[in-house]
Design brief:
It contains 10 helices and no strands. By secondary structure, the chain is mostly helical. The protein has 3 domains: 118 residues, no CATH class; 104 residues; 73 residues. Helix 4 packs parallel to helix 8, helix 7 packs antiparallel against helix 8 and helix 9 packs antiparallel against helix 10. The chain starts with a helix and ends in a 5-residue tail after the last helix.
Length: 307
């Protein structure tokens, strides 16, 4: 609760000081930002988000400039022997300003691309959970459960991840805001980053409007989603086999080859034994772990979600 209050206070402060600048000079340059923020499930306006980005970038610049200038002044005074303390301080300040500006711009544009990163992650999670969520909806629809109650049930199961959050927002619009279920489905379809989930929502909306059989529609969508999920699993299994072979060949065999080659070259060429030992230790303690972590991250990113 304290974190939420702090975030709200920072948002209000940022908008108070930077809101006018955002509205006049910046907002028009990012016409898709509000849509991306909505799809990222970030309950904030584009004006407030850009104000936070500007405020954060400004704070970074204010705190980074003196620290960077001080460090660079010491570096210049140490490396460039002929430079006196005054000249080193001026050089440190100049390069500190340039470095601070680059960092500030980087922080601002990191805010700009962050919603897109969240959207891609949400899309993957929704697509991975969709077959099971639709299958569950199809199952409970057979008992004649009202659609809003079906979404309430899905919202309670956190195992469905982002789909549970989307269903929770649909329920909020109906129960708290007084919206009808058709409009709520339309809003959710426009909001979700997943094209597959969007198709399901639009199909449910159309089925309700024409008085069709929702149970049959959901069973059909569930069957198609499960078939697609099986195809993705089969494709991932093939890719996983390929990556395991690459890992064994490049990382394991490559590391052994490197150790043997450096040892032979050191014996033939009479190179520094200490340097060769350092290279081998770096390979074992740094190269192998980082390569292994890289493969794990890559495979985890490709794998269907376990939510």
């Amino acid at each position: 609760m304290d974190d939420m209050n702090s975030n709200a206070k920072f948002t209000r402060m940022a908008y108070r000081y930077f809101g006018n600048i955002v509205d006049k000079y910046i907002l028009a340059s990012f016409p898709k930002l509000q849509s991306d923020i909505s799809k990222a499930n970030m309950r904030i306006t584009a004006q407030e988000y850009l104000s936070i980005a500007l405020a954060t970038a400004t704070v970074v610049f204010v705190f980074e400039l003196p620290l960077l200038a001080f460090i660079l002044a010491i570096v210049f005074n140490t490396i460039i022997i002929s430079t006196n303390a005054g000249s080193a301080a001026i050089l440190g300040l100049i390069f500190g300003v340039f470095g601070g500006i680059l960092t500030t711009v980087g922080v601002f544009f990191l805010f700009i691309i962050y919603p897109s990163i969240v959207i891609d992650e949400r899309k993957k999670r929704i697509d991975d959970s969709l077959p099971f969520a639709v299958l569950y909806l199809a199952t409970i629809s057979g008992s004649g459960t009202p659609l809003v109650a079906m979404f309430k049930t899905i919202a309670k199961f956190k195992e469905y991840g982002e789909i549970s959050k989307e269903c929770s927002r649909i329920v909020e619009e109906v129960d708290l805001m007084g919206s009808n279920i058709v409009s709520s489905l339309e809003n959710a379809a426009k909001r979700t980053p997943s094209e597959k989930f969007k198709e399901v929502l639009w199909g449910m909306r159309s089925t309700i409007m024409v008085g069709g059989d929702l149970k049959s529609y959901l069973h059909e969508r569930a069957q198609g989603a499960m078939n697609d999920y099986r195809r993705r699993l089969a494709q991932f299994t093939q890719q996983l086999s390929l990556f395991i072979e690459m890992y064994i060949t490049v990382v394991v065999v490559g590391s052994i080859f490197f150790m043997i080659l450096t040892t032979i070259m050191g014996g033939i060429g009479g190179g520094s034994a200490g340097l060769i030992t350092m290279a081998q230790v770096a390979m074992v303690l740094i190269g192998l772990p980082f390569a292994s972590i890289g493969f794990v991250v890559l495979i985890k990113g490709m794998a269907p979600s376990s939510e």
